[in-house]
Amino acid sequence: MLDFYLEGRLPKETYEEKHKQITNQRAELEQTAEKYKNIDADMKKRVVQVMALANNISKLFDMATPTRRNELLQLLISNCQLNGSKLEYTINAPFNWLINSNNYTEWTTVVIQHLDDFECVKV
Q1: Burial state string for 58-72 with b = 16 or more CB within 10 A and e = fewer than 16
Q2: Alpha helices in the chain (DSSP H)
Q3: Which terminus has fewer CB within 10 Å in the chain: N or C?
Q4: How far apart are CA 7 and CA 34, in angstroms?
Q5: Which residues contact 59 (CB under 8 A, 6 or more apart)?
Q6: pLDDT (tens digit, 9 = 90+) per residue, 88-101?
Q7: In a 3-state reduction of DSSP, which class is residue 77?
Q8: Spatial CA neighbour of 94 closest among 115, 69, 73
């Protein structure tokens, strides 16, 4: 790109705009790389726990005490409201991201994209 600019085949405005875009993308990538470089063992453990919970929630809920069921529900959903005879609720992050993925093989990508949400969960 620089060669084209220096040869006069690329307008200065186009060069500067593309250069700025590339510089911004590089800064974002460096910031993301730094963030993931510092993932510690506790964070990895938390991600595994969240994914295991999401994968086995039906069994866990069936075997849980009423107190534990309440804890699981609070972890998974919020903003519960009865609208006529229909219960409406919001699925909490990061479980919403996992549910919205097409299948569990995409979960690794989901985790990477939403690592901050996984960091906040107390399983």
Answers
A1: eeeeeeeeeeeeeeb
A2: 2-6, 12-37, 41-63, 66-76, 95-100, 107-113, 115-120
A3: N
A4: 37
A5: none
A6: 999 999 999 998 88
A7: strand
A8: 115
Q: Do residues 91 and 79 lie in contact, with contact meaning Cβ atoms separated by under 8 Å?
A: no
How far apart CA 25 and CA 66 sit, in angstroms, is: 49
**Residue 33: which residues within 8 A CB-CB, separation 6 or more?**
none
Give the pLDDT mean for 38-59. Answer: 85
The pLDDT assigned to 29 comes to: 84
As beta bridge partners, residue 82 has 87
pLDDT at residue number 9 = 77
Bridge partner list, 81: 88
Which residue has tokens 């085949």? 9
Query: Are 68 and 57 in contact, with CB atoms under 8 Å apart?
Result: no
Helices 41-63 and 66-76 sit at what angle, rounded to 10 degrees? 130
pTM for this prediction: 0.62
* CA separation for the pair 22, 20 (Å, rounded): 5
